Amino acid sequence: MLQVDNLNVYYGAIHALQGISFNVNEGEIVTLIGANGAGKSTTLRTLSGLLRSRTGSITFKGVDISSMPAEKIVEAGISHVPEGRKIFAPLSVRENLMMGAYSRNDPAEIQETLERAYRSFPRLKERAGQYGGTLSGGEQQMLATARGLMSKPTLMLLDEPSMGLSPILVEEIFRIIVEINKQGTSILLVEQNAQMALSVAHRAYVLETGRIVLSGVAKEIADNPQVKTAYLGV
Questions:
Q1: What is the pTM of this model?
Q2: Cα–Cα distance measured from residue 40 to residue 37, given in angstroms and rounded to the nearest whole number
Q3: 1-77+154-234: which CATH architecture?
Q4: Where are the domains of the chain?
């Protein structure tokens, strides 16, 4: 579904991604784990067209999207739920969700997707008329994720969905991620909570200072002694 080959990304003189290559197959949850500054968020921002790679290619469903504008990438079927949620605080929950459907034209299909989002996130339906900025942190993360679903993506890029949440809410967010995946959406997950990420993912890649240093089945990565020491606190 997604194939990334030899991606090199720079911030000025800083070589942020150094020739990384990886893939996401249809139906998978794939996670990128690594320390702060490893290049995880940069990877997602490059995939969604917010950053441009200097060299390398990004192929999605057989089409090279490396130079495609961000809005066209959304239309192609990739949705990015950014770090920090980035909801529209002065808009209602429903208005935030409808902003996620801006690339779609069929009102009946949009309404159907909205109802699906409300089924996955019942709390958002209860707060449909409430301003986004008045929601709790957990509810804002639910809103950001649900908004990402509104473009009806086949691949979701999730950046740090558990950041700043209580342990109970972290479990709920990850339960929802698994549910979204079971409903047919592939997921590329960037997550500081490596233990939770590896528990739900099919495969994993470990990033260190812009390079992939380890990859494999998520359970095997979780059992790797170096990973246990560096990321799992074991």
A1: 0.91
A2: 8
A3: 3-Layer(aba) Sandwich (3.40)
A4: 1-77+154-234, 87-152
**Angle made by CA atoms 51, 56, 57, in degrees to the nearest 5:** 80
Which are the contacts of 149, defined by CB distance < 8 A and separation ≥ 6?
79, 100, 113, 116, 117, 120, 156, 180, 185
**Mind listing the pLDDT tens digit of every residue in the chain (234 residues)?**
999 999 999 999 999 999 999 999 999 999 999 988 899 999 999 999 999 999 999 999 999 999 999 999 999 999 999 987 889 999 999 999 999 998 888 999 999 999 989 988 899 999 999 999 999 988 998 999 999 999 999 999 999 998 888 888 889 889 989 999 999 999 999 998 899 999 999 999 999 999 999 999 999 999 999 888 888 765
Token pair in block for residue 132:
């986004």
Instruction: Quote the CA–CA distance of 141 and 160 in Å, as a whole number.
Output: 10
Tell me which DSSP letter residue 93 carries: H
Residue from 151, 119, 147 nearest 132 by CA: 147
Output the CA torsion sign for 94, 121, 44, 134: positive
The Cα–Cα gap between 233 and 92 comes to 40
